[in-house]
Amino acid sequence: MATILQFDFPYPGPWGADGAKALKDLADSIAAEPGLIWKAWTENEAEGIAGGIYYFKDEPSALAYKDMHAARLASFGIKDIRAKVFDINEGLSEITRFKNA
């Protein structure tokens, strides 16, 4: 079953276009992860929080990525990492225009 993974954590920046340039190699690496369908990068500069919403083809892929990415973030010195895994209610999500890729 398709699975959503949510990460958020304290982040000092860079933000926006500067962040896109600085994190391009990381984005390329994430795009190649097994089972990943898409990722939306999230940021809230006013609150100093960043993260992402990930859509995986199945729960095992999401869980494997969750463990690996939490360790990678910790290796960058990031603390207070929050990660949550969610099943998708496809019936309701279809009504609200969710597209299952």
TrEMBL record:
This is Monooxygenase. InterPro entries: Dimeric_a/b-barrel, YdhR. Keywords: Monooxygenase, Oxidoreductase. One of its GO terms (molecular function) is monooxygenase activity. It comes from Microbaculum marinisediminis. It holds the Pfam family ydhR. PANTHER family: MONOOXYGENASE YDHR-RELATED, PTHR39169.
